[in-house]
């Protein structure tokens, strides 16, 4: 019983598609999770702190 090349290509493309969709959904869920808001706000404001500015 041999498996054809076309079948394996279709199977791998389908698996890759669903894998990337699941990965994207996971990243979006992590990004918009309410408990991560404080961490992301701190990261966004960290570049505006006095110690991070160039010397003048």
Brief description of this entry?
It contains 2 helices and no strands. The longest helix is centred in the N-terminal third of the chain and has 27 residues, at about 5-30. The chain has helices at about 5-30, 35-45.
Could you please describe the fold and organization of this structure?
This protein is mainly α and 56 residues long. 64% of the residues lie in helices and 0% in strands. The protein has helices at 5-31, 37-45. The longest helix has 27 residues, at 5-31. It is elongated. The termini are far apart.
Q: Can you count the helices? A: 2
Q: Between the first and last Cα atoms, what is the distance in angstroms?
A: 75 Å
Instruction: Write the element-wise H/E pattern from the N-terminal end onward.
Output: HH
Mean pLDDT over the residues: 87
**Main sheet, how many strands, which sense, barrel?**
none
Question: Which regions have little confidence, pLDDT < 50, spanning 5+ residues?
Answer: none
Q: What's the alpha carbon Rg, rounded to whole Å?
A: 22 Å
Oligomeric status: single chain
Number of strands: 0
The general outline is elongated
Structural class: mainly alpha
Residue fraction in strands: under 5%
User: Roughly what percent helix?
Assistant: 55-70%
List the helices and strands and how they pair.
Blueprint: H1 5-31, H2 37-45
